[in-house]
Amino acid sequence: MKNPFQSRNRSTGFTLVELMVSIALGLLVVLALTTLLINVSRNDTEMSKTSSMVENGRFAMMLLKADIEHAGYWAGFVPEFDDLSIASAPTDVPTTLADICQNYSAAAWTALDKKNIVGIPVQGFDIPAIGTIITPNCDTSLTGAYNPIVSPQRGTDVLVVRHADTGTATGTPSDGNVYFQFDLCGPTRPSPPYVFATSGWTKTKRDCSTISEIRKLASNIFYVRSYSGNGDGVPTLVRSNFGVASSVVGHQPADALVEGIEGFRVEFGIDNVSKSGSNVSLTQAINWGNTTNLTSPTNRGDGIADGSYVRCTTAAPCTVAQLTNAVAVKIYVLARNLTTSPGYVDTKTYTLGTTTMGPFNDNYKRHLFSQTIRLENPSSRRETQ
């Protein structure tokens, strides 16, 4: 008779074949989970880099738009050539482009310099893709002049924006910065009725006794530098502010604003056609014409850009007349990731107005941003029904 307890003492378990099969299946499961984890992590990294790139591009556009919208704001002062209530021929039409490299001094800044600053609130030029980089009016051999544009990214543009600060200074500033003050006292109003100075605030309001507001001069140079800091090779949107440092009053070394900005193009909308269909004339008195119900002067613009937008280049620089009549700015910003994306090759071509960039054929992902910004101050002065 078979012992009923004999089977309970027999050893049981996996065979060698079963053990090998189970190990193999476990390895497959672990491999699948590891691959899934790697792919999720890679996708998350790429999404994070793309999100950061888009945020950088939008932030760059926001910074540029915020400053461009204030271009030509001079605390209520309207240049004669844009003042449609003045019957005589204007005397303050700009004749040359303002020197972006000239430091301030009461003796160096002539009435002509100030007129050109007020009359041309935006200015642009390009950094050539090849050849010698020469910025307008900059000559390091001149006393008191220097080049505020250092290590620019080739094939990009430079934008200069000028206006009075929207906030007023407290008290009577004497910190060495240049400030703008506008005289509103009609009977004794000087010509020009404003000053750019570091001290000596005597301009008054309409009552001819109360000192008028004092506002800091805002002159900003935007460009793309070929590095962010310490020669890291990351293209970066930077800004050189007009200020004072070590007793030098002028455009200071640029501060980094947004990393990963690789392309920057600037085009200007020019109001160069008058109501009569002829070119705008800023050297003649306002001519309202004799046509019945004519509500716009026949020799001034209407605040709307005419024709194609214009890019200022070394080969075809913008004229004084064009920039004096600029009423809009179109900007293009090409942002790229700060690090490469393995397995990705950028074969795209990016259209920035009348020019293109790419294909770069590298491993960086990019995104193009563009926006047209109306120059509210110059354009609104010309508006008529």
List the helices and strands and how they pair.
Layout (H helix, E strand, L loop, with lengths): L15 H53 L42 H9 L2 E5 L30 E8 L14 E4 L11 E4 L16 E12 L10 E10 L2 E4 L3 E5 L1 E10 L49 H5 L1 E11 L13 E3 L2 E3 L8 E9 L1 H7 L3
Antiparallel strand pairs: 1-2, 2-5, 3-4, 3-5, 5-6, 6-7, 6-8, 9-10, 10-13, 11-12
Q: Can you give keywords for this protein?
A:
385 residues, 8-stranded antiparallel beta sheet, 3-stranded antiparallel beta sheet, alpha+beta, 13 strands
How is this structure best described in words?
- The chain has 385 residues and is an alpha+beta fold.
- It has four helices and 13 strands.
- The chain has helices at residues 16-68, 111-119, 320-324, 376-382; strands at residues 122-126, 157-164, 179-182, 194-197, 214-225, 236-245, 248-251, 255-259, 261-270, 326-336, 350-352, 355-357, 366-374.
- Strands 1, 2, 3, 4, 5, 6, 7 and 8 form an eight-stranded antiparallel β-sheet that branches. Strands 9-10-13 form a three-stranded antiparallel β-sheet.
- The model has no long low-confidence stretch (mean pLDDT 88).
Uncertain runs = none
Strand content: 15-25%
Computed Rg: 31 Å
Please identify the structural class as seen in this structure: alpha+beta
Q: Between the first and last Cα atoms, what is the distance in angstroms?
A: 120 Å
Backbone shape: elongated
Average pLDDT rating: 88
Strand count, sense and barrel status of the largest sheet are: 8 strands, antiparallel
Question: Using DSSP, what is the number of strands?
Answer: 13
Q: How much helical structure, as a percent, in the residues? A: 10-25%
How many helical elements? Answer: 4
